[in-house]
Protein 1
Amino acid sequence: MNDERYVRGWAKLKEVDGQAGQNVIDGLKDIAPDFARLLIEFPFGDIYSRPGLDLRTRELAVVAALTAMGNAAPQLRVHIHGARNVGCTQQEIVEVIMQMAVYAGFPAALNGLFAAKEMFALEGPQ
Amino acid sequence: MNDERYVRGWAKLKEVDGQAGQNVIDGLKDIAPDFARLLIEFPFGDIYSRPGLDLRTRELAVVAALTAMGNAAPQLRVHIHGARNVGCTQQEIVEVIMQMAVYAGFPAALNGLFAAKEMFALEGPQ
Amino acid sequence: MNDERYVRGWAKLKEVDGQAGQNVIDGLKDIAPDFARLLIEFPFGDIYSRPGLDLRTRELAVVAALTAMGNAAPQLRVHIHGARNVGCTQQEIVEVIMQMAVYAGFPAALNGLFAAKEMFALEGPQ
Amino acid sequence: MNDERYVRGWAKLKEVDGQAGQNVIDGLKDIAPDFARLLIEFPFGDIYSRPGLDLRTRELAVVAALTAMGNAAPQLRVHIHGARNVGCTQQEIVEVIMQMAVYAGFPAALNGLFAAKEMFALEGPQ
Amino acid sequence: MNDERYVRGWAKLKEVDGQAGQNVIDGLKDIAPDFARLLIEFPFGDIYSRPGLDLRTRELAVVAALTAMGNAAPQLRVHIHGARNVGCTQQEIVEVIMQMAVYAGFPAALNGLFAAKEMFALEGPQ
Amino acid sequence: MNDERYVRGWAKLKEVDGQAGQNVIDGLKDIAPDFARLLIEFPFGDIYSRPGLDLRTRELAVVAALTAMGNAAPQLRVHIHGARNVGCTQQEIVEVIMQMAVYAGFPAALNGLFAAKEMFALEGPQ
């Protein structure tokens, strides 16, 4: 057992988005419970926990990548929310998505912006 | 003519990577000279020049996206170099590429790391 | 301000699909109003307005590309409709989507055909 | 007419998933009936019918590929069901999807696992 | 044997690019000779031979799609050449590639333009 | 330290392709040595080592996915070789790649077949 990685991973996942993390873990329970453990251990225990890049930049980079790939809508929404949780402004998120128009085209950027609009709406009036 | 956007775009492109920019512009001369102008005006004049996100974060986001997409090797190299030009550390670039293993898989991250290795080697010993 | 590009872009966007364009612009209003302007200026003011390729072929090429990419369903629907607006026949659209089975696989082509079926149904009986 | 390929294709399609196949064929009837014929003839009459690789491995390979591509959700669901029909265990399907986390990232694998969960639920309690 | 499709396919393939077709067929000889037959029969015998869309538009649509996908460089070069063979102008090809900047990003369009430059150079001075 | 995962991962990596694995590890040494460790621990220590799917099927699934994605040529070659190392026949590999023509298009399958041809040639005459 790699309890240290698991504990470190959960702590980091909670910083990013504990509720969304819990929902995914719950959703995996009766299909692939081991994958829930791996999800906590590798992405959050191994990668997100590394020094050398702050959590805000990590989340903006993930929002950029998922916007550009355009085939992972649920995860894009989670990480737009995660970016907010770790302190990114709405403007920073919008800017990073807009920039993807240059690298992955306008449809990718538009779908990213509409995902951001949806997630920001859940925050209520600013 | 949108000279203002063009001038602003060239200035921004020079901040990111003037030499690579010039090479691309030269390469387009006898195939699509208008595209060279559009490349300066829209990505650099319109997008990169916007406030609300610093140039370092913009470049790290682009490195993330191009690593994840995995189908734009020449542009990934240019932006790894561009990230360095605007002040990103080698470590920050390596971290953002490693993180793509989580979102786009290990092959994407490996190919990104080898591109970074190639570009860092051009800098000579640190 | 680049009013000339904006005006030219809106005119061109209206030729392709004014209603869908307006919906997108409206949707962007409270998340990224600047992106609405960029969307009119660059794709429609700069690219679609160029001579050298007629609007029908431009729209069929876009339907082909979005079908092949398979990750931009809302934009595919808009451009299937846009292709009809600029004079493409239903048969031409179906043929270009079917051809994508060769280049991007049968799932991409099937999803494209079902998008076309949905959009053609909105036209009512022919 | 290539009736031999068509007959062979339908027989193979029925082995994989006759009901889903029929639904797709029906759905194509008023948009692209020829494509329904091509879908039976080439993928199922020409490719699936070849010797040298058993049907179980073919279906697991398709589940792997569609999970990794991440842009063909309806077809992924059909082939998760098809893999079950030709004798793959739920565990084999889950393993092949989990493995895609390595090659295409965690979002692709998660979306694949949730598709599997949905399809397995239709089977009722095991 | 589907000799009719094969004969029709070869005739169509020769219209598009007989030499490139022959090279691919030869290259497949000792790895997958059956695939050479399938390549002639399905894409060229079944799809390209259909009425309802002229060969020029088919080739421009393929150039658009392969530029946008960005992961099939050899085939993009073949179809840029094929587009020329069936009567597309250099300008039409350049325009359709430039348009992909909007839908798949600037890197995809740039890599497409450089492929076109390479293929046009083989034609010698115009 | 997770020495158990590391040891188990290296053993599994050696089964798949010890030499290619070592080359990648060496290549990462001066750019991202930690990533070499993660590459052994997560993909090989955590995923490949799981029961429930034999190594031959795992490798064929990876060949399928990398062929379909079309943007990871070096890794596709490694896993074609890996598939051979764990006992897959050349015919099985060719069949799984050919099948990708259906799901990801002919260019993806062709590029996969040519990669297989290259890797099989290194084995010398059979």
Protein 2
Amino acid sequence: MTELTTASGTSWLSREEMDSARERLPILYVDAVPVRVDDHGTVSAIGLLLRVGGDGQIKRSLVSGRVLYHERVRAALLRHLEKDLGPLALPRVPPAPQPFTIAEYFPTPGVTPFHDPRQHAVSLAYVVPVEGDCAPQQDALELTWFSPLEVREPTVLAELANGQSHLLLQALAHLGV
Amino acid sequence: MTELTTASGTSWLSREEMDSARERLPILYVDAVPVRVDDHGTVSAIGLLLRVGGDGQIKRSLVSGRVLYHERVRAALLRHLEKDLGPLALPRVPPAPQPFTIAEYFPTPGVTPFHDPRQHAVSLAYVVPVEGDCAPQQDALELTWFSPLEVREPTVLAELANGQSHLLLQALAHLGV
Amino acid sequence: MTELTTASGTSWLSREEMDSARERLPILYVDAVPVRVDDHGTVSAIGLLLRVGGDGQIKRSLVSGRVLYHERVRAALLRHLEKDLGPLALPRVPPAPQPFTIAEYFPTPGVTPFHDPRQHAVSLAYVVPVEGDCAPQQDALELTWFSPLEVREPTVLAELANGQSHLLLQALAHLGV
Amino acid sequence: MTELTTASGTSWLSREEMDSARERLPILYVDAVPVRVDDHGTVSAIGLLLRVGGDGQIKRSLVSGRVLYHERVRAALLRHLEKDLGPLALPRVPPAPQPFTIAEYFPTPGVTPFHDPRQHAVSLAYVVPVEGDCAPQQDALELTWFSPLEVREPTVLAELANGQSHLLLQALAHLGV
């Protein structure tokens, strides 16, 4: 996961406190796979963000971020979708809270397919149809829509960091595309 | 399930052939629980149809119907939603094919909570957010929206036939409301 | 799917009647992905059957078969698991009826990733841990256990017929392995 | 949820640090609904623990507890099952990581059906078949098996604290019983 805690006051911990917690507790995240669907509800495109990571490298990523204290999971999903896709994206968060899978990001590589050098994060993963206009916000440079076929290409998958290519493939399998 | 095979040419079997198949094979159905969701994706209302059953009794029901030969499950869902809710309902069929549960309707009462005197039907059940205007069609007299609280009232549940009250409660549990 | 309707009296239709139904109605199937799990419930191996298909070709397949009239889905799963893996396999059928996905096998290739030249079949797919000794039965020549890594090899996937390689990959994604 | 963090060294935070984190971050939990299944995988009984809560009151509860830093969700499930049901319980943790739902326990009552005065906890909920002998451990006084019918009785449901009766009913709905 790319750096998603912002200085915008959405976090209720100072950076020092958050860094300390990150060394002690699994941190709860949400991951959203933004999709375009046609009239039949069939997925026609998958959206990936282009970001500059903490190390200056340009990487693709899913919409991803922390759940805050006293925040509903659904509200966290909407907050991160709006933060990354803009206020006119019209995301259709699924009405049921069951995620299609969970992703366990470990600070140690190799424990799971997911890796986050900063922390142990456990993410609830959802597919979210997006109906409006998306405009990348904040640290996201671009949002690119790929067809289900294009997004599986090794060159695209290789641009996803932290094992999110694995989560993307899990989402595609869940969608049956 | 109320009588859902129509004389409109959507069925590819004569009534006699269909009656014969119904005595020999489990018939594949879809059940849809139509819901209204707010901006956060939280369910605010559940829609139930009011129908006149084959026996002349007035009953409530979910949107329900058969999957036809060479028809995708997704297409069957949309066809039955349009048939019952009208062409302007704008149903948002979930992008993934995993149903939240299956309902096994047996011709013999008591085998499962679901009962269909006409046949052994196995139904794939989905929750479907509906965004547009609903106008009951064909044999549906009315579509009524209930709040999650109202729809659980014993008087409402008692109006659902064939064990669909059980399926409705399963949907509410899945939705976490 | 390989031919799974047997002459053993488990089918309630004559072959002619079944052939006729297959041209008229979607037929309800179950697909099971047999797995070995360790003490932690982590999948260590996936089992594939080796069969001689109707065309004389040797192919690998999942455990798969039809749901009969008046048969519970759970009972159909157990019947096909016992038929293919033998009476000592000790399958642990999941307690909840929600399949991890559905597979729509069309007689026309290309409509979905799944294809069955004989019929339109819709299959409910489950992952089933198997704890006992497996001995292939009837038309199954062999059961082979593959590690999650081995089973993804293109040579293994290519031996699965009717698009079941797609279903296997969906199962692996669902399992997170 | 009853107090589940023990002084046994399984926690990597001092009580003061944990109390501080609990005021700042959602804490990741797992909830397990222990079930007995018959040969067909049908649920025959649901297990509830009897505990003395922090306030001295005797309450029933599900198996529930925190996920630790650098602990897999699967390992946390097994640890809490063993802690509460004893080392011979032989739990069959599901092979897939997808929970059947999530439960959001808020420190403020009424935000969700779930309430935990100590913290904001988000729990991943699983149904876990248990095949061995259960012996309540530590602060659990007793484990009682209820039939699916008995466990729904208002007197039983009323003995569950923190909204876990709601989660139990969600599990029963998911199981279709």
